[in-house]
Each structure stands twice: as structure tokens, then as C-alpha cells.
Amino acid sequence: MTPVTPEVRVPRLVGLMAMDARETAAACGLFLNAPDRPDFRRTPVDYVVRQYPPPGGEVPRDSVVYVWFDFGPGEGGGGAGVHEPRVPRPPGGGLRRELDEPGDPSTVASPV
Predict the structure, then answer these.
(1) Cα–Cα distance between 33 and 42 in angstroms, integer?
(2) What is the pLDDT of residue 25?
(3) pTM of the full predicted structure?
(4) Burial readout 53-79 (b: 16 or more C-beta within 10 A, e: otherwise)
(5) CA 40 to CA 25: how far, in whole Å?
(6) One-letter-per-residue 3-state SS of 37-104
(7) Which residue has the higher pLDDT, 40 or 98?
(8) Residue 97 has pLDDT above 60, yes or no
(9) Torsions phi, psi of 85, nearest 5?
(10) What is the rounded CA–CA span in Å between residue 84 and residue 56?
């Protein structure tokens, strides 16, 4: 149990699911607000991607910590989706193109 003090340290909420973030904040004596989710109280499984104030800072007990579940413009939310299939397809071959086909396993290759 967290001792009752006028200041509390803000926990790291980024990476937690919404329900875990709510429980963690409540255990520290803080409230959460999610500006991008009006239905925040019913959001159980979305992950927190940023928070304010940042973790480690000290704030008065019963303060509000703001959390977001979507990346803002220019914060890396786009472009990380599925990129397959690629067109045009990369050339085939891979290791087959680099190595000779195996022959008899009992033969030893001579040094070049």
C-alpha cells in the first residue's frame, strides 16, 4: 500500500493495457484521463502509447495523468503496417544463388 503523502511519483503507464493503467494509477493515488477516448472507462485492452506528466515526476496526490492510445501526427503511428506482398517481388535465389548445389555428402571440396 502506498503511504499517504502530499506528493506521489508518476508511474510508467506507456505499454500497459487501459485497465492495468487505471489500476496502477489508482494504486498511486492518481486519476487517468484519455483525451482521445471518451469511452475510456469501458476501454479494457488498448495499450497506452504516451502519457503526461512523464513517468518519474512528482505530482500532488489526486492529480490527473493524461494517457493516449493513438499516436499523434508525426509520432510514428503510421507506416509500420503490413508491407507484403511487395511489388515487384525481390529476386529469387537467396542462398541457392550464392552456393553450389550439394553433391555427394561424402566428397570433400578442394580448397580454392
Answers:
(1) 13
(2) 95
(3) 0.60
(4) eeeeeebeeebebebbbeeeeeeeeee
(5) 14
(6) CCCHHHCCCCECCEEECCCCCEEECCCEEEEECCCCCCCCCCCCCCCCCCCCCCCCCCHHHHCCCCCC
(7) 40
(8) no
(9) -80, 145
(10) 40
- Pick from 20, 14, 84: nearest CA to 56: 14
CA-to-CA dists, residue 4 to 7, 12, 61, angstroms: 9, 20, 8
Lowest mean pLDDT among 6-10, 12-16, 48-52, 82-86: 82-86
* Cα(77)–Cα(69) distance, integer angstroms: 10
CB–CB of 48/11 below 8 Å? Answer: no
Please, are residues 51 and 66 in contact by the beta-carbon 8 Å criterion? yes
